[in-house]
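Tokens for chain A. Residues wanted.
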């Protein structure tokens, strides 16, 4: 086979492999999500319970702050008592104190309910976690396998790209550009074999003169049907 054609066939083989590996690599996150989906039924309740506990704890803290503030204002109101002179002022102060106390009682009650909620969720948490970890453990093998596959694809991809870089300098620029142009228009196939007088790229018969030229292997020959580079398959 013509030396340049040999290089182009090698380049095409590498390009197709690189493309296939790239696709396989793109599928990895999707496949990881499929594994995630398998454990969703136990992971979601566990994660949600943890989130809910955090939210409730924040709420309980805020309520505690409010209660303290109201206790302070209650004490301040009490200190005003001895200075009061009229009945009107006295009943106004009592009313104010009463309102503050009611508000504080409400907050305290809410605080208590919140703490109870936290406690009951915290009781549930270990069993939720156990169920989740059991499922997570069950898919660990699958996850490891997928990670391993990913690493293998990545290293193979690097290797193939290195091989490609070694081939490239031996291909003249104009032929490389033509190759790239045809490959992008023809789904990655820029070089096609001729078998029994037929181009395997477009399955159109090749003129005997062209087959003859291919035999000599001195010229670069293109298919008249699909414009691909042609080479003669050894078997035919
Ligand atoms: Zn063709």
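Reply:
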């Amino acid at each position: 086979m013509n030396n340049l054609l040999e290089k182009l066939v090698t380049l095409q083989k590498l390009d197709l492999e690189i493309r296939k590996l790239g696709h396989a690599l793109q599928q990895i996150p999707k496949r990881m999500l499929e594994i995630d989906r398998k454990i969703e039924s136990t992971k979601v309740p566990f994660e949600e319970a943890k989130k809910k506990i955090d939210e409730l704890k924040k709420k309980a803290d805020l309520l505690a702050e409010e209660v303290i503030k109201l206790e302070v204002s209650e004490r301040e109101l009490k200190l005003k008592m001895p200075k009061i002179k009229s009945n009107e002022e006295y009943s106004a102060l009592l009313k104010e104190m009463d309102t503050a106390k009611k508000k504080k009682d409400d907050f305290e009650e809410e605080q208590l309910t919140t703490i109870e909620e936290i406690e009951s969720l915290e009781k549930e948490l270990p069993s939720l976690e156990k169920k989740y970890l059991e499922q997570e453990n069950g898919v660990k093998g699958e996850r490891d396998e997928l990670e391993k596959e990913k690493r293998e694809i990545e290293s193979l991809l690097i290797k193939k790209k290195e091989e490609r870089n070694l081939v490239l300098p031996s291909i003249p620029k104009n032929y490389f550009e033509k190759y790239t142009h045809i490959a992008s228009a023809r789904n990655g196939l820029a070089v096609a074999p001729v078998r029994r007088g037929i181009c395997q790229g477009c399955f159109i018969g090749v003129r005997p003169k062209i087959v003859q030229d291919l035999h000599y292997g001195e010229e670069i020959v293109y298919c008249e049907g699909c414009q691909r580079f042609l080479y003669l398959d050894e078997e035919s």
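The pocket of zinc ion is lined by residues 192, 199, 201-202, 204, 223, 225-226, 228 (CB under 6 Å). The chain has five helices and three strands.
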